[in-house]
Specification:
Blueprint: H1 3-10, H2 18-38, E1 44-48, H3 54-62, E2 67-72, H4 75-84, E3 89-92, E4 106-111, H5 121-131, E5 132-142, H6 148-154, H7 167-173, H8 185-193, E6 198-206, H9 217-227, H10 229-242, E7 249-256
Parallel strand pairs: 1-2, 1-4, 2-3, 4-5
Antiparallel strand pairs: 5-7, 6-7
The protein binds S-adenosylmethionine (SAM).
Length: 266
């Protein structure tokens, strides 16, 4: 069922190790299911914050003949994406103001793993919906506030704001909880409502609850040698009961003409 997700996991260079492999497998399995469900052959797809092009590669394996666009601010990652998927139209641009992308053009807008680096989810909701045709689908992966991913990321160095950001600046910013953006479900609803577009929430799909700070992944990788992936599954089931907050979830949103909008809750 998820053989394509497995292909993507094995394409990761350098090998990220057992825990991150397990985490990526879950991510790509959910992504594969969503692409198979919402991406029709020949559809126009935009991947925002596409990085090295994983989602574009997966989409092209899932569905034939799509017109694929990718946008990222990082030139080096885009070069990798260009080599992996030469047919895609790749733009170096800012997801908050993507002037290189046509408006009301796409059947599907997808974003994974960029919202936590964003200036504001209200801006992103408005931009993403503006890129879609009416009845188009937004596949938006969002990290949940106070999830184990949020807590883990509080313990890491702040991300680069621009390519030449110094390590010193990043270390200074690391003490600010605002260095990453993890929002509540209510603020996601507010962001969508303030977008000025009609929309309907179709589904919300968790990609899991278990995560561990990157500094400690070596402990999980060591334990994996004895217990295998079953250990991570066990931890995920336990956190599902003890700390039921999603490290990330896909919100599937259909853009509607304003008069036809029914909205819905998360
Ligand atoms: C964690 S990576 C995720 C990459 C990819 N979507 C994936 O799932 O592997 C976040 C990506 O968002 C990009 N990004 C961050 N801020 C951005 C911005 N303002 N505009 C466009 N891309 C941005 C980064 O360069 C990076 O490639």
């Amino acid at each position: 069922m998820h053989e394509l997700a497995e292909v993507l996991v094995h394409q990761q260079r350098p090998d990220p190790g057992p825990f991150v492999r397990w985490h990526l497998r879950r991510k790509f399995c959910v992504m594969e299911e969503l692409f198979r469900k919402y991406l029709a052959p020949g559809a126009k797809l935009a991947d925002m914050g596409c990085g090295k092009g994983d989602a574009l590669v997966l989409a092209s394996l899932c569905v034939s003949g799509c017109e694929e666009w990718g946008l990222d601010i990082n030139c080096a990652d885009l070069q990798v994406a260009r080599q992996r998927i030469p047919s895609a139209i790749l733009c170096q641009d800012d997801m908050h103001d993507p002037r290189t992308l046509p408006k009301e053009y796409f059947d599907v807008v997808h974003e994974f793993g960029a919202a936590f680096l964003s200036r504001g989810w209200g801006i992103l909701a408005r931009v993403y919906l503006s890129l879609l045709k009416d009845e188009g689908i937004l596949l938006w992966e969002l990290p949940q506030r106070w999830s184990l991913a949020h807590i883990s990321y509080l313990l890491t160095v702040a991300p680069k704001r621009k390519p030449d950001d110094t390590r010193f600046n990043r270390l200074l910013r690391s003490f600010l909880p605002s260095k990453y953006r993890f929002e509540s479900d209510e603020s996601v609803t507010r962001a969508l409502r303030a977008s000025g577009c009609g929309y309907e929430i179709l589904e919300r799909i968790s990609i899991g609850t278990f995560y561990f700070p990157a500094l400690l992944h070596f402990v999980l990788d060591w334990a994996w040698r004895y217990f295998g992936d079953g250990l991570f599954e066990l931890f995920d089931r336990a956190t599902h009961h003890l700390w039921p907050r999603d490290i990330g979830y896909y919100l599937v949103v259909r853009k509607k003409a304003l008069h036809a909008a029914s909205q819905g809750t998360i």
